[in-house]
Amino acid sequence: MNIVLASAEVFPFAKAGGLADVSGYLPKEWEALGHRSLIVMPKYGDIDVEKFKLKPMNLTIAVPMGSWTEFAQIWSATLPDSTVPVYFIESADYFDRQGIYGNPDGFADNNRRFVFLSRAVFELAAALNFKPDVILANDYHTAFTMPFLKIHYRDHHLFRDTVGVQSIHNMAFHGVFEPQETLYLAQIGMDQFYSMSWFEFHGALNTLKAGIMFADKITTVSPTYALEIRYSDQGHGLQNVLLERAGDLIGILNGVDYKVWDPETDDSIYVNYTTDTVEKKWENKYEFLRRSNVHESEIYADMPLIGMVSRLTDQKGFDVVRDAIEYLLHIYPIRFTLLGSGGREYENYFRDLNLRMHPRTLIRIGYDEQLSHRIEAAADIFLMPSRFEPCGLNQMYSLKYGAIPIVRRTGGLADTVFEFNAESGTGNGFLFDDLNVQSLVDVIGRALNVYYNKAAWKKAMRNAMTADNSARKSARAYLEVFEWARRGR
Ligand code: ADP
């Protein structure tokens, strides 16, 4: 198949979150499976042109906007570890600045920026004479490709047979704009904007809604999230829109790039290990504790290490962790390690906790890729009490590293972690439902009971480490959706 992937973020060029990872590994996996794809993204001012070897092409495309035409020079690079071409749309007006979205409030011209990007996707493919079987739009930023495909390009010889798939990575962002200007720029008449139309939501233009309605198929990043966004407030108001398209919506779990996250080959960790040599995990824990200034005599105490690596936000349940942690340390013989950054108040609280409770708490405030690998390798238990979690990556890394996950039953956490049962020897972690202190007390107590039964714990680790959450599997599932969309034409 020929695939165009349009995204505002692609790892390693520009990243704000999981969207970048997925946009980066899918085309790589599709290539390995024999498919041809290209990536279209903006050339942001802070992309490291030298490091990523971006080259200006001898190609300028004309992009229709409103009643005029704008021009964009195209730069290109290759996706690392592949031959997948990445095309960067250059625009002094829209992208040559710091940042991707202009968070927290968003750039005032995000409507123009993303209409332009979405339109450029077609003009670029046409300039390259690339005939896509599928265009995959990601989140609201490139959602305008879906109506463009059906309105402006449906008779174009390159796009006549192209299907559109809209992927939702986080339902919280809709791209809500003022309709008049935005539709004018998109060359779509205001006669398309009326109450309950595909563009309208509560009187405003809703870009994600348009993407959902015009797409042939819709994906989101886990099967449970696909239900939650239809049947709970996690749909952020678009539940009924998604219900209307429910027959075309499917959840596909994100995957892990096991070339980066595998304790057998990971060169960030102290000692490599596999399911057959899990005792070497202990050496990682030993080294981690020693370097965290835990006294030699205390390292040998059989105290499980509970780890977290996360943005410090309410989404990740840190309000409850903050309320519970001192009590948990009081009643259970556990050690707690946290690597995180984010909310100032949380950062201060955990810094202070570390001063008071070290060496029972080993806390690092900041962002540290290498340390995140070392924590996965050292931790016995990994905690993710997320309020909501479209997919979540860390629980999947934890499984691979035999750090048994304790998670709240939501989104992708519920799809990847299964309650361990010591009698049947099934399951790979522990789950809880209510996000409060008592639930954490209960679930950690349950995990500790198993922890001290060494044979059972080893079984849980084996189950965890052999779970397949690979990027390859995820990429195959997208291909199936593309075929499904093509059959439905
Ligand atoms: P989200 O995208 O909602 O933040 P995910 O679990 O899907 O949550 O992905 C988070 C990614 O960011 C993971 O790869 C995680 O290891 C990484 N990460 C988060 N905080 C840190 C940090 N402080 N240092 C290193 N890596 C981090």
Name its key features.
489 residues; alpha/beta; Rossmann fold; 2 domains; 9-stranded mixed beta sheet; 6-stranded parallel beta sheet; 17 helices; 18 strands; 37% helix; elongated; binds adenosine-5'-diphosphate
Explain what the structure shows.
This protein has 489 residues and is an alpha/beta fold. The chain has 17 helices and 18 strands. α1 links the parallel β1 and β2. α1 packs across α17, α3 packs across α5 and α10 packs parallel to α11. The chain binds adenosine-5'-diphosphate (ADP). The site of adenosine-5'-diphosphate has 15 residues, from β13, β14 and α12.
CATH class bucket of the largest domain: Alpha Beta
Q: What low-confidence regions span 5 or more consecutive residues with pLDDT below 50?
A: none
- Which ligands does the model contain, each kind named once? adenosine-5'-diphosphate
List the total number of helices. Answer: 17
Please name the fourth-level CATH homologous superfamily of the largest domain. Answer: Glycogen Phosphorylase B
Oligomer: single chain
Instruction: Report on the biggest sheet.
Output: 9 strands, mixed
Tell me the helix content: 25-40%
Overall pLDDT metric? 97
Strand content: 15-25%
Rg is 24 Å
What is the topological layout?
Blueprint: E1 2-6, H1 18-32, E2 36-42, E3 55-65, E4 68-78, E5 85-89, H2 110-127, E6 134-138, H3 145-151, E7 163-168, E8 176-177, H4 179-185, E9 200-201, E10 204-206, H5 207-214, E11 217-220, H6 223-231, H7 239-244, E12 249-251, H8 281-291, H9 296-299, E13 305-312, H10 318-331, E14 335-342, H11 344-357, E15 361-365, H12 369-378, E16 381-384, H13 394-400, E17 404-408, H14 411-416, E18 430-432, H15 437-451, H16 454-465, H17 471-487
Parallel strand pairs: 1-2, 1-6, 2-5, 6-7, 7-11, 11-12, 13-14, 13-16, 14-15, 16-17, 17-18
Antiparallel strand pairs: 3-4, 4-5, 8-10, 9-10
